[in-house]
Specification:
Strand content: 15-25%
Oligomer: single chain
CATH superfamily of the largest domain: Thiolase/Chalcone synthase
CATH class of the largest domain: Alpha Beta
Strand order of the largest sheet: 1-7-6-4-5
Order of helices and strands: EEHHEHEHEHEHEEEHEHEHHHEE
Largest sheet: 5 strands, mixed
């Protein structure tokens, strides 16, 4: 019996209209456009504004864009996975809300939290439902409203993050293309360096935690940078070696958009030239679980059927990984 392989058959995205530029941030914190660009590569980021506008708003719009592009009916979707660390609520899940609001009447869903590695964790999870034969149409969304947990008085973090959502449709492959391999890692000792201190069961929300600013992202930048450079680069090199590939065999590297220097280090470790490393960090900043699907959306027209594409990410906590896919279609 031939093994069923899962393939990405379409990409959708949605970004908020409000643009927060480096010039805007210069008026809010002690920073400069030159300082931000030289250390991160970011020029601007998108921010979701409006009362009661949560991550689900972006996810629903990304799904609607995906369905329209792939000519897929909402009722055909069987499962939705939302990779996010900024859910609308602790419960119900954002996926639950999204299924209803996007008209996915025959779908069930759940949220998955792995910070910036969320899309890779979600992709590896989603393909199991295709490969097992249980489902034929699964949507994976990477979406985060990072502006909801960023302290805009903290210049170390507020310059980095933005809001956005990207979605992919997964279906059984019609050939040998699709998701080929993945390596995922985690290390809980990373909680020291990158976390949100309160709001969970260890430290529930209270006047004291709010007053102490413990519901914002906390990051020790240098420590996170060092771990990201080593681990994201190493796991990406490992997936090449395991699949008997070299940098010359790779059509494109899609790295998580956290910091241009981290992406450069990963490409160098893999022997991949800058022309193959895709970037859009200058326009969107770090949208956490959304960065890789947003890259797919922005560069989709450059991908050709059969292209070897490597995805790589590193996230808080720590989580990291790499996924090898053979692109399954030519964009019309």
């Amino acid at each position: 019996m031939t093994k069923i392989r899962a393939a990405i058959t379409g990409v959708g995205a949605w970004l908020p209209e409000t643009v927060l530029t480096n010039a805007d941030l210069e008026k809010m914190v002690d920073t400069t456009d030159e300082w931000i660009q030289s250390r991160t590569g970011i020029k601007e980021r998108r921010i979701l504004k409006g009362e009661k506008q949560g991550t689900s708003v972006m996810a629903v719009n990304a799904i609607k864009n995906l369905l329209e592009k792939t000519n897929t009916k909402p009722e055909e979707i069987e499962l939705v996975i939302i990779a996010t660390v900024t859910p609308d609520y602790v419960f119900p899940s954002t996926a639950n809300l999204v299924c209803t609001r996007a008209g996915l009447t025959n779908a069930w869903g759940f949220d998955l939290a792995a910070a910036c590695s969320g899309f890779l964790y979600g992709l590896t999870t989603a393909i199991q439902f295709i490969e097992s034969g249980r489902h034929k149409k699964v949507i994976l969304v990477g979406a985060d409203k990072m502006s909801s947990i960023v302290d805009y008085k903290d210049r170390a973090t507020c310059i980095i993050f933005g809001d956005g959502a990207g979605a992919v449709l997964l279906e059984p492959s019609k050939d040998e293309n699709g998701v080929i391999d993945s390596i995922l890692k985690s290390d809980g000792t990373g909680v020291t360096y990158l976390h949100m201190a309160s709001g969970g069961s260890v430290s529930p929300a209270s006047h004291a935690t709010v007053d102490a600013g413990e519901h914002y992202v906390y990051q020790e930048g240098q420590a996170v940078f060092k771990h990201a450079v080593v681990n994201m680069a190493e796991v990406s090199a490992q997936i090449l070696e395991r699949n008997h590939l070299t940098g010359e065999d790779v059509a494109f590297l899609l790295p998580h958009q956290a910091n241009k220097r981290i992406c450069d280090a990963t490409a160098n470790r893999m022997g991949i030239g800058p022309e193959k490393m895709l970037m859009n960090i200058e326009r969107y900043g770090n949208t956490t679980a959304a960065t890789i699907p947003l890259l797919m959306h922005d560069y989709e027209k450059r991908f050709k059927k059969g292209d070897n594409i490597i995805l790589a990410a590193f996230g808080g906590g720590f989580t990291w990984g790499s996924v090898y896919i053979k692109w399954a279609y030519d964009t019309k």
